[in-house]
Every structure is written in structure tokens, then in C-alpha cells.
């Protein structure tokens, strides 16, 4: 997509990384559960972007697996519920450094997906953090989605610089695109 065609959300996604989502309200003071917590531990005083607005975390509770947050300016249960489903974003620069062979899950969104035979399978639309492993949601060119576990048997090759990953459709028990199976 050309730079002039990029939406503000797409530009923000390049500069920020989702570290969770606003879940259901917790109590009456504007607190909420964080769903899909990942990557870093959110703490009081940290800045997050939620629903397009930058907010400071006023209070953090809960556990690492099920944190609860109160954001400055989000007062009352109704205000927290209004944000439900919104991503919690942090600046990419605030993330800890990665080793050479590591990546953030958000870096995979938008990658082209090819089969081992070189056929176009689709594009990664999101990374789902499931209990057993992360799963790539791949939008197929003809429509519909393919779920691909992010394990070496299913994804034998990943090239972030080329913005391309290869999937093993035999392992996934999926037919080659354009083939008869």
C-alpha cells in the first residue's frame, strides 16, 4: 500500500505493538481485565494507546496471566466497558530488545504466505495467542481463513526482511492452491 493510502491505524500499527486488549470491566472505578496479555508486563506509570488516545496506567492489579488496569481518564464502569475490545498499544521503542532470531508477533501481520511449492496461500491478518502456541490467521486470496500453528513443522521458513513465510500444506492437511488436493 502506498504511504499516502495508509490509514492512521496502519501507521500507528507500525509504531506501536499490541500488548493486550481491554476486557470486561472489573468493579465500579474504571478498572478492567486485560485479555490476551503478551510481550511485556504493564505497570503503573506506563503509557499505552487505547482507542486512539494515549493514557497512563494509574493502577495495575491482578496477575501476569490475568492483569487488571485502571487508566487515567477512564472513570467508572461504563467508561471501561466502552473501551472493551480495544487493543492496548505500546510504542515499539519501549519493547525490550530481541535476539537476532526473535520477532514480535505483530511483525508477522501482513506477511505473504506461500506453500513449499511456491503457490500463493494468502496473507497473515493476525496472530492469535492460544494456550498451546501462537496461531497465524491467514486470509486466502479466494476468501476464507486458514489457521496455521506457529511451529516449525507448519512454518518451515520465515523471512521477515522479504516479508514472506512458507507453510507446509501437507503437514496442515491442506490442498495446494489451484490444485485438486
| Beta strand count | 12
DSSP helical segment count: 2
Helical content stands at under 10%
Query: Strand pairing plus helix content: what structural class?
Result: mainly beta
- Principal-axis shape equals elongated
Radius of gyration computed on alpha carbons? 19 Å
CATH C-level category of the largest domain = Mainly Beta
- Total separate domains: 2
**CATH architecture grouping of the largest domain:** Beta Barrel
> Percent of residues in beta strands?
35-45%
Distance between the termini: 33 Å
Family: Belongs to the RimM family.
Domain RimM N-terminal: 19-93
Keywords: Chaperone, Cytoplasm, Ribosome biogenesis, rRNA processing
Subunit structure: Binds ribosomal protein uS19.
Folded structure, characterized:
The chain is mainly beta and 181 residues long. It folds into 2 domains: 3-93, RimM (Elongation Factor Tu (Ef-tu), domain 3), CATH 2.40.30; 105-167, SH3 type barrels (Roll), CATH 2.30.30.240. Helices cover 8% and strands 39% of the residues. It contains 2 helices and 12 strands, in the order αβββββαβββββββ. The chain has helices at residues 8-15, 77-82; strands at residues 16-25, 32-35, 47-50, 53-62, 67-71, 87-91, 112-115, 120-129, 134-139, 145-149, 157-159, 164-167. The strands form 2 sheets. It has a 6-stranded antiparallel barrel with strand order 1-2-5-4-3-6. Residues 1-13 have low confidence and may be disordered.
Amino acid at each position: 500500500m502506498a504511504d499516502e493510502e495508509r490509514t492512521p491505524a496502519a501507521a500507528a500499527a507500525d509504531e506501536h505493538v499490541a500488548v493486550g486488549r481491554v476486557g470486561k470491566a472489573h468493579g465500579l472505578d474504571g478498572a478492567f481485565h486485560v485479555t490476551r496479555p503478551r510481550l511485556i508486563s504493564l505497570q503503573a506509570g506506563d503509557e499505552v494507546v487505547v482507542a486512539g488516545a494515549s493514557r497512563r496506567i494509574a493502577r495495575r492489579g491482578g496477575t501476569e496471566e490475568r492483569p487488571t488496569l485502571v487508566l487515567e481518564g477512564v472513570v467508572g464502569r461504563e467508561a471501561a466497558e466502552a473501551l472493551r475490545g480495544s487493543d492496548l498499544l505500546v510504542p515499539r521503542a519501549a519493547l525490550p530488545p530481541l535476539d537476532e532470531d526473535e520477532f514480535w508477533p505483530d511483525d508477522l501481520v501482513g506477511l505473504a504466505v506461500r506453500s513449499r511449492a511456491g503457490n500463493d496461500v494468502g496473507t497473515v491478518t493476525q496472530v492469535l495467542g492460544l494456550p498451546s502456541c501462537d496461531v497465524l490467521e491467514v486470509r486466502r486470496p479466494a476468501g476464507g481463513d486458514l489457521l496455521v500453528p506457529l511451529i516449525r513443522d507448519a512454518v518451515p521458513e520465515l523471512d521477515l526482511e522479504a516479508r514472506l513465510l512458507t507453510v507446509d500444506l501437507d503437514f496442515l492437511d491442506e490442498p495446494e492452491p489451484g490444485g485438486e488436493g
